[in-house]
Amino acid sequence: MYEQFLEIINNPLSSLAIIGNLIIIESLLSVDNAAVLATMVMDLPKEQRQKALRYGIIGAYFFRGLCLLFAAFLIQIWWLKPLGGLYLLFLVFNYFRTKSTPDKSDDLLNKKEHWFYKATLGWMNQFWATVALVELMDLAFSIDNVFAVVAFTENLILIWTGVFIGILAMRFVAQWFVKLMGKYPFLEPAAFLVIAVLGLKLVLSVYEHFRPGDEISKFLSGHTADWMTSLITVLIFVVPIITSLLFNYPRHAQRT
């Protein structure tokens, strides 16, 4: 841990860039999470919706904190990183596959057909069965986040700092991202492109493991690769926004 602290002191700009990207990733994933959770509570009476979502936020905090501890083990078990990378790439593939089909009904979780919801509904009322499913989704989303943040850095101090700030900002920044994506709809697929970059970085850790002394491995595990990853993630968002503002390409939402 002391060596990781020295690494931050010796590379402050790189560390700040990593923390900033972790906050962005946490917020981006939170937008998708919030959309799914909001969909799941829509069939509840109006007075119960906010209560269910409040339990969901508490669960999100709890499971993300739990997964922060899991991150320490994730770093030590080398094969979990490429496995997590493949999982993130699958999420991206599934997103674009779903978007390419005319029927968009698969975009949202069909709560009433979910096996966990149907099982809990047998011994819980609708409200608590919904809360239980929300918590299960929180756990799944937290695992997604851990795989994503570990792709940026193995420094636990940076991971804890970035994710902790991300958790605090999650509720507010996610709302801002929802508005931003409403104005710039192309940012949603851009967010999944960022996740694809992180997934690819995790998959490439296989090379680092089997060729530890190789020049490519040194590059992948060095600060230059971290800088490049941070730069690519920023450009994926900034470049299309600039071209949209200047040339309306990609098209942004028209003001009404």
From TrEMBL:
<keyword id="KW-0812">Transmembrane</keyword>
<feature type="transmembrane region" description="Helical">
    <location>
        <begin position="190"/>
        <end position="207"/>
    </location>
</feature>
<dbReference type="InterPro" id="IPR022493">
    <property type="entry name" value="CHP03716_TM_YkoY"/>
</dbReference>
<keyword id="KW-0472">Membrane</keyword>
<keyword id="KW-1133">Transmembrane helix</keyword>
<feature type="transmembrane region" description="Helical">
    <location>
        <begin position="227"/>
        <end position="247"/>
    </location>
</feature>
<dbReference type="InterPro" id="IPR005496">
    <property type="entry name" value="Integral_membrane_TerC"/>
</dbReference>
<dbReference type="GO" id="GO:0016020">
    <property type="term" value="C:membrane"/>
</dbReference>
<feature type="transmembrane region" description="Helical">
    <location>
        <begin position="12"/>
        <end position="31"/>
    </location>
</feature>
<feature type="transmembrane region" description="Helical">
    <location>
        <begin position="157"/>
        <end position="178"/>
    </location>
</feature>
<comment type="similarity">
    <text>Belongs to the TerC family.</text>
</comment>
<feature type="transmembrane region" description="Helical">
    <location>
        <begin position="52"/>
        <end position="73"/>
    </location>
</feature>
<protein>
    <submittedName>
        <fullName>Membrane protein</fullName>
    </submittedName>
</protein>
<dbReference type="Pfam" id="PF03741">
    <property type="entry name" value="TerC"/>
</dbReference>
